[in-house]
Specification:
The protein is built from 10 helices and 12 strands. It has helices at residues 23-43, 83-96, 124-128, 156-165, 180-190, 195-204, 218-221, 253-264, 272-279, 347-361; strands spanning 48-55, 58-65, 77-78, 228-229, 232-233, 250-251, 283-286, 289-291, 296-299, 305-312, 317-323, 328-334. Helix 1 (23-43) runs antiparallel to helix 10 (347-361), helix 2 (83-96) packs across helix 6 (195-204) and helix 2 crosses helix 9. The chain is globular. 50% of the residues are buried.
């Protein structure tokens, strides 16, 4: 995905006023604003959509559906690449605890060769900022893949073989190029073959993100939205090797609001130092885009700062964005695959940025 192409879609809306008044009135205005954006998501082709918002002390979640019950805050969606921010937070925790350094080279077990280009080795910071030079995917991933579940067949043995065939496009640390492979390797470097347990211990458990996991529990399955592609139901993605890239992570709007609340107020979180480190810019792409650990840092209309990440799997599309300056955050999840065109962002991204822009102005 071209992470800069979305930014022009974050246009300012009419600016619904949320002046200080009784809490019930403020929540009513917030509900009306969110409903407008949910309606736009449905009009863009989503079978259903859920949106969660934080504005100061107010939190609000609502859903809408073309047909049948609307999803809510506990409805389970596949998260996609927003899961990379969880992996990056786990890295930041390890750095803050002194267990690793950002400039430490990527080290994998014997038999998993780390590609090189030039004298400088790939570092953990390179992986977390998409500047490793690695391709988006291993070269041997798609050859035998089920197009509806492309990561499910891929094993650690396949990864070892794929790394032996991998060449870097640029010298590490020099150029931004988005890489699922890079984040998958980052998670394996932190906890080889124990990615789920590490994310749970380092991030989701301390932040009480009970439904954010790569393992779909029975109680979650009963609450899960069905993913769609071009109007047809499709299976979830499963990934046992590169899950640190977010390829098989599940979550809910309620969990994402807890996560975004911690991003807005790190001082109230048990992960304060790690969150601050992850949000700090670590690589500058150009005047419009900087990269934290996992997070993308850019601007809303009018130049106000925004921190964000989006995601998608074969049947789901998601986006999360926040502004610490205005203490606002938005997450939107829809149960359909979509992708940006040459001229337009995905609807879920454009709507998330536009809603955050409206909230940020008032």
């Amino acid at each position: 995905m071209n992470r800069r192409k979305f930014l022009g879609a974050a246009t300012a809306g009419a600016g619904l006023s949320l002046l200080p008044r009784q809490a019930m009135a403020a929540e009513g205005e917030l509900a009306a604003l969110v409903r407008r954006y949910l309606d736009r998501a449905l009009a863009a082709g989503s079978p259903s959509a859920v949106c969660g918002v934080i504005r100061g002390a107010h939190r609000y979640t609502a859903g809408a559906s073309q047909d049948g019950p609307a999803p809510g805050g506990r409805t389970v969606f596949q998260l996609g690449s927003i899961g990379k921010t969880l992996t990056a937070t786990a890295l930041a925790r390890a750095v803050c605890a002194g267990r690793v350094r950002l400039d430490a080279p990527l080290v994998l077990p014997p038999g998993f060769p780390v590609p090189r280009k030039g004298p400088r080795r790939i570092t953990l910071a390179d992986l977390a900022t998409h500047t490793s030079g690695l391709p988006s995917l291993p070269p041997n991933l798609l050859a035998n893949a089920d197009p509806y579940d492309p990561y499910a067949h891929y094993t650690l043995d396949d990864l070892a073989d794929g790394l032996a065939e991998t060449t870097l496009s640029t010298a590490p640390g020099s150029t931004y190029s988005y890489s699922n492979l890079g984040f998958g390797l980052l998670a394996q470097a932190l906890a080889f073959d124990e990615v789920e347990a590490t994310l749970r211990r380092s991030v989701t458990a301390p932040l009480r993100l009970r439904d954010t996991t790569t393992v779909l529990r029975p109680d979650m399955a009963s609450r899960k939205a069905v993913g769609h592609l071009a109007g047809d139901p499709v299976p979830d993605w499963h990934d046992h090797v590169l899950a640190g890239a977010g390829t098989s992570v599940y979550s809910t709007a309620d969990d994402m609001l807890r996560f975004l609340g911690a991003q807005l107020r790190p001082e109230r979180s048990p992960l304060r130092d790690a969150i601050e480190l992850a949000q700090r810019p670590h690589f500058t792409v150009d005047e419009d885009l900087r990269i934290g650990l996992g997070w993308h840092l850019s601007a809303l209309s009018g130049g106000r700062p925004m921190t964000w990440h989006n995601g998608g799997t074969g049947g789901f599309s998601t986006c999360a964005a926040f502004s610490r300056r205005s203490m606002t955050a938005v997450v939107m999840m829809v149960n359909t695959f979509s992708e940006e065109s040459d001229s337009e962002a995905r609807p879920v991204d454009a709507l998330t940025f536009a809603l955050l822009s409206e909230l940020d102005q008032v």
